[in-house]
């Protein structure tokens, strides 16, 4: 996973990552490039080019002062190429201000008295400055409050507006409607809108020594709107394909952002988070009657949910947008319905609201991954099933998360989810490979010996050899398997229902693969007695006490006790060799995939090759040869040398097992996992 730029702090997170059903992702810097440009402006309904010099000057001074970014390079470099320290929004504002005139000159003409930085709750930045230049055409030696922030949150505090000609008029219903229409227009274009406002202050802030924040906020009214600015932050080129991959994997991507809801919806459409023509609001959702309720049972007075059903009757109404100020008014029944939507956008959210969203999804048994990079994201990152921090984010966010995306790329998270699913699948493949020979094919020799009275085909020592040596190499090789083509088209695993070993797997490994192995291995056992000792199978049945006599009396011949021991050890070696060859020639290749054919998942060449398997198979066969032919090991493990043909006869039988499993996979691909074939096999 580190090669895919996914840093995992805890290995248990990998398993959880493969079960993720909902991703709550931020917009800025995660889905978008975080390369912001202030592209459009509006002063009194006109562009800045058509505004008066006075109006432009006011806009310039507010943008220059109400911005925490700083140029790092000298002024001889072009504005677009100069390095800047600060967040992406302030960088865009700083470049815009520098394009109107020297930012340094404006800042040198003021003395900063107080500042409230931007935060996710307020969604605005305020600075209080005193002009040092009494010749300033607007701020002539006075103390002024400058504010930059979300327009819809600042509108209630605005009393006046600057017109394009520099005059000031009341911010009445007509003016508000005009400004609001401009904001909605830009928001529908996916642009982030900022309001630039100011207010001349009559108090001397420099004389105050306490409660500055309280005093500043108290005076934050009767503001004057100088203009609006629209910032463009283009989506990452790979984001749309990544979101579509999430949807094909039945993972819902919910955008949770601090931006205006319409801006969020517009960007969500660009990156395929929202594809429905109509996007419901909370009012629409409450009016609808066709949403399936989340099923739950009462347990100790609490609602215990099952997995949220996300299928809606009307496909055109699968998307919803919710603003942060609506979240506190949502009821439990509202959340039940919201969590049924397939496409969700949350706008103007604070850190507390983001945490609330995560908690509501988790309450309904969703496995939630949350992305974030700021200090304010840490509560949601901590509460999420999988907290995902960006490598370029704050240390607090990275500390609160369980995964860090080193390259700050949303697509890396999907690669991590794929790795999580693959990890679970490969462990399951290992188990599926080990059980037939490691338990089933070792159990039946004991049962046949007890109930049919035949010599014991596989002694205890050789059972241990199979479990601890010959089966180990191929099982390790299976952990290096590439993902099947269906891996990211299946629904996420439900940790409470989808177990590593379930009834379907037992049915498959015992009554399908295991049954064939038991029959073929016992066939080799009886074949050895018939060809090498001249004793047919029917004469070996029901011998019980006769096996302990000397000589051992059979219908066709008498065998000394010593020879019988040698024959039994050699026939047991044939049984052991048969199991090894059936495993490495058949079962290991059958276990590589659940749906795909071995021809689609070629182990020897191409993108799905796994050369560890043939290497491990050779290692297993070499071990079998050593235990059969080395005299010292013969004495320790009660084995005996056998003719080489007993190594080759099981090879086509192993291929027969593989072919039978290929027929099963063909039926599974043809009739689907819900068919009878899918229900009785893994």
Characteristics of this structure?
682 residues; alpha/beta; Rossmann fold; Calcium-transporting ATPase, cytoplasmic domain N; Calcium-transporting ATPase, transmembrane domain; 3 domains; nine-stranded mixed β-sheet; eight-stranded mixed β-sheet; elongated
Textual characterization of the structure:
The protein is an alpha/beta fold and 682 residues long. It has 3 domains: 2-32 and 235-415, 3-Layer(aba) Sandwich (Rossmann fold); 37-228, Calcium-transporting ATPase, cytoplasmic domain N, CATH 3.40.1110; 421-679, Calcium-transporting ATPase, transmembrane domain (Up-down Bundle). It is 45% helix and 16% strand. The protein is built from 26 helices and 23 strands. A 9-stranded mixed beta sheet has the order 1-21-20-19-2-13-18-17-14, sandwiched between helices. Strands 3, 6, 7, 8, 9, 10, 11 and 12 form an 8-stranded mixed beta sheet that branches. The chain has a two-stranded antiparallel sheet with strand order 4-5. A hairpin with a 2-residue loop joins strand 15 and strand 16 (302-305). Helix 1 crosses helix 16 and helix 2 (53-65) packs antiparallel against helix 3. The radius of gyration is 36 Å and the shape is elongated. Mean pLDDT is 89; it is low at 296-301 and 307-313. GO terms for molecular function: ATP binding; ATP hydrolysis activity; P-type sodium:potassium-exchanging transporter activity. Pfam families: Cation_ATPase (PF13246), Cation_ATPase_C (PF00689), Hydrolase_3 (PF08282). Residues 455-666 form the Cation-transporting P-type ATPase C-terminal domain. This is Calcium ATPase. Keywords: ATP-binding, Cell membrane, Membrane, Nucleotide-binding, Translocase, Transmembrane, Transmembrane helix.
